Amino acid sequence: MEITEKVAYLKGLAEGMELDTDKKEGKLLSAIIDVLEDIALELQDIEDEQAELAEGLDAVSDDLEDVEDVVFEDYDEDDDEYEEDELDEDEDCYATTCPTCEETIYFDESVLEDGEVICPNCGEKLEFDLSSLEEEADEDGEE
């Protein structure tokens, strides 16, 4: 039995007892039953809204599962490796700190060869002068 049904039952009992609402006791019982009815209706509204939120959450959860399937479709959980599109493990990865936003930027050798990179955080153009590195490599090779 729902709370609203129980309050309706109490209201029916009070009407069946023919409470005299002109007397203090009758007024009090009638007011209590009216407040109980308001509370029961408010609770019913909250339960309905909670059920609606639960349905919405289920829908979002299903959508997230679909997104995870797309994002991680190449990922093999057993091996903790990508089945396809594996990263080239021999390729070096470099990092630098942007002087403007002070965020760390990661890039591969192809960017290094270009001599410049655009900071993905602030858009600052960073240029690399590799001539000193090449001179060091030449000196190391001569010895």
Query: How far is it from the N-terminal to the C-terminal residue, by CA?
Result: 93 Å
Number of strands: 6
How many H/I helices? 4
Largest sheet, order of strands side by side? 1-2
**What's the helical proportion of residues?**
55-70%
- Please tell me the overall pLDDT: 81
Q: What structural class results from the helix and strand content?
A: alpha+beta
TL;DR?
The protein has helices spanning 3-16, 24-71, 109-114, 131-142, and strands at residues 75-76, 81-82, 93-97, 104-108, 116-118, 125-127. It has 143 residues and is α+β, with helices and mostly antiparallel strands. Helix 1 runs antiparallel to helix 2.
How would you summarize the topology of this molecule?
Blueprint: H1 3-16, H2 24-71, E1 75-76, E2 81-82, E3 93-97, E4 104-108, H3 109-114, E5 116-118, E6 125-127, H4 131-142
Antiparallel strand pairs: 1-2, 3-4, 5-6
